[in-house]
Amino acid sequence: MDLEETREFRERCSQCAAVSWGLTDEGKYYCTSCHNVTERSREVIDTGAIPNTKIQAINRGLKRKRKLEKGWDWYVCEGFQHILYQQAEALQSLGVGPELKNEVLHNFWKRYLQKSKQAYCKNPVHTSRRKTTVLEDNSSHSDWESEPELLSDVSCPSFAESGAESQPDVRTPKPFPIIKASHSETTSVCSGSLDGVEYSLRKEKGIMKMSVPRTLAFCYLSLLWQRETITLSDLLSTYLILKVFQKYRFVEEEHIPYIHAFQHFPEEMKLYGRDKGIFAIESWPNYEVIFKKIIEVATFLDLPRFPDITENCYLHPNILCMKYLMEVNLPDEMHNLTCLVVKATGIGEVDFLRFDPIAKKAKTVKYDVQAVAVIVVALKLLFLLDDNLEWSLSNIAKKYNEKNKEDKPWFDFRKWYQVMKKAIDEKKQKWEEARAKFLWKGEKPIYYSAIDRPVVYKRREMLVSLQKQFSTLVDSAPNIEKKKPSSFQFNWTEEDSERPCFHGHSLQGVLQQKGQSLTTKNSLYWLSTQKFCKSHCKHVTTYEESNFSLSYQFILNLFSFLLRIKTSFLHEEVSLIEKRLFKAKYNKTNKKSSRSRKTRKC
Amino acid sequence: MSDFSEELKRPTTEDEQGEPCVRSGSGMCFPWLQKHIESIASGGKQEKDFAQTTSACLSFIQEALLKHQWQRAAEYMHSYLQVLEDTDSNKRQGAPEIIWRLGSEILYYHPKSNLETFNTFADRMKNIGVTNYLKISLQHALYLLHHGLLEDANRILTQAETWRYGEKSSSQEVLVNLVQAYKGLLQYYSWYKKKMELSQLDKDDYAYNTASQNMLNRSWKTSINLCTLIKIPGVWDPFVKSYIEMLEFYGDQDGAREVLNNYAYDEKFPSNPNAHVYLYNFLKREKAPREKLISVLKILYQIVPSHKLMLEFHRLLRKSDKEEHHKLGLEVLFGILDFAGCTKNITAWKYLAKYLKQTLMGSRLAWVQEEWNSRKSWWPSFHFSYFWAKSNWKDDKTLACEKALVAGLLLGKGCKYFRYISKQDHQVLKKKMKQMKKSVKKYSIVNSGL
Question: Is the CB of residue B124 less than 8 Å away from at least one CB of chain A?
Answer without folding.
Answer: yes
